[in-house]
What we know:
Elements: E1 4-12, H1 15-37, E2 40-44, H2 48-58, H3 63-67, E3 73-77, E4 79-81, H4 91-98, E5 110-111, H5 119-134, E6 146-149, E7 174-179, E8 184-189, H6 191-195, E9 200-204, H7 210-218, E10 237-243, E11 258-264
Parallel strand pairs: 1-10, 2-3, 2-6, 3-5, 6-9, 9-10
Antiparallel strand pairs: 1-11, 4-8, 7-8
Helix pairs in contact: 1-2
Amino acid sequence: MHRQLQIKYYVEPDAAALARRAAQYFVEMAGEAVEAQGRARIAISGGSTPRAAFELLADPNQPWRWRMPWEMLDLYWVDERSVPPGDPESNYRMTREALLDRVPLRPEQIHRIEGELEPEAAAARYESELRNSFRLEGAESPRFDLVALGLGEDGHTASLFPHTEAIHEMSRLATANRVPQRDTWRITLTWPVINHARSVFFLVAGAEKAAILREVLTGPRDPERLPSQLIWPSSGILTFILDKAAAALLPATDEEGCGVLERER
């Protein structure tokens, strides 16, 4: 893993432009993966911000719907709540409503986390699904072509919450994580798996994220309190797609709305 990290951030003026940029990024990264190896494996996150991008990807009146190589795509989840797939809190349900019900993905292309199971069982089943679908051997780790993340106001990403056991897990692919501050369980990819991906990006919106985003990107390294700082891709490059409100406390971008930060371990 690189000791130096280049952080590229792209700033869009509003939520609609942010969703368009994210949809475009999904299509570009999937296209590059298919061109390179004939398949694209993408892990997605839940929440309202990615939902808008998913709805654009599924919209037959938008260009991204027709540019995405659906037949060569495998879709995974970064994390899931410990709820059934029809629960309003389910990340899978959100994705199904916004995207899956409206695009030509076959059931075998959809690799969900079974949140209805007991958390440890759900994590073990998902790890088994990863090993089988990626055809892993021994201690091999899956190499996603793209991992899409969000950022919580407490500095968490995926379901890696501050001061929880999952931020110390380095040997498993997926783990069940007890989150006392939310009185719940989550199932999540571990951070070494996320960092092994070919490309990782955060999608962040809203003024309420501005302060924590600045702290994660420019403040002292403290991943126990700010688990998002664990995301340090082996490629040495990390991308953020932001709206203007979330980016308000970061250094100014260039004329094309792009900024770059450098971090050292």
